[in-house]
Amino acid sequence: MAIPPFKAYLFDVDGTLLDSAPDICGAVLSVLKNTSRPDVPVSFLERYIGKHLDELFADLFPEAGREQIDEWVREYRVVYPARGHRATKLYPDVAESLGRLGGRKTTATTKGTQTAVNILTQFGLAGHFQHIQGTDGFPSKPKPDVLFKAMEAIGAKPEDCLMVGDSVPDLVAGKAAGVKVCAVSYGYGLVEELRACEPDYWIDSITELHSLRS
After folding, report:
1. N or C: which end of the chain has fewer CB within 10 A?
2. What angle do the packed helices 21-32 and 53-60 form, to 10 degrees?
3. Contact 120/126 with Cβ under 8 angstroms?
4. ∠51-91-195 over CA atoms, to 5°?
5. 39, 25 contact by CB (below 8 A)
C-alpha cells in the first residue's frame, strides 16, 4: 500500500460517508407532524444535517422553551434508529476508498458514539476505523471538542490530521482544532458557504483523497 498523504483522517459521517438525509429528515418530519410546522421542506432540513438538533428546533420554533426542545430531541432519538436506516445509502466508492487509504482513521460526528458505531457497522464500514468518535455530553461542531476526543483516542497530533466533511461546522471545527480540512462537494453543505470557510482541499469524490498531499 502506498504511503498515505496524511498520518490520520477524521471523517464526518452524514453527508460525507453516508447519504443519510432521507432517514434523518424523515425522523425530523415524524417529530414535526404534531407541531404547528408539519410540512417543513426536506431541502430546508438538509441544511441542518451536521448541526445539533437544538439549533434546528430553536430556529423553527423561536418561541419554544428549553423543556420543549429537549422533548423533541428525545423523540427524534427514538424515531431515528427505529427507522433502521432503510433509506440510507453509502456514497459511491466509500468502502473501497477507506480500505485503500491507509493511515489511522476515526470519525468526528455529531451523532452519539453508539449511534455512529451502529450505523457504520450496519453499512460495513466500522472495520476501516481504528476508532469511532461521536458527540457525547460535550459541545458539538463547530466546537472542536469531538475532534480533540478523536485525535486523543488514536494518538494523533493536529498536524498529522485531515478532517473530511461536507458542512460548515465540520470545517470550522477542523480549523479550530488545528487540522487541515477537506470539503466534499457531494454532501449537504452549500458550496458557497463551504468556499467561504477556505478549506485546504476540495474533493468531488472520496476517491480523490488518495491524491491529496499534506
Report:
1. N
2. 50
3. yes
4. 50
5. no
Q: CA 73 to CA 67: how far, in whole Å?
A: 10
Which residues lie below 8 Å from residue 94, measured CB to CB, with a gap of 6+? 17, 18, 125, 206
Query: pLDDT below 70 — which residues of the chain?
Result: 1-4, 214
Note the pLDDT of residue 212.
86
Q: What is the pLDDT of residue 4?
A: 57
Sign of the dihedral through C-alpha 199, 207, 167, 123:
negative
Query: Which residue carries 476515526 as its cell?
Result: 106
Residue 181 belongs to what H/E stretch? strand 180-184
Distance CA 14, CA 73 (A): 18
CA-CA-CA-CA torsion for 150, 155, 157, 162, nearest 10 degrees? -50
Find out whether 168 and 189 touch, Cβ atoms under 8 Å: yes
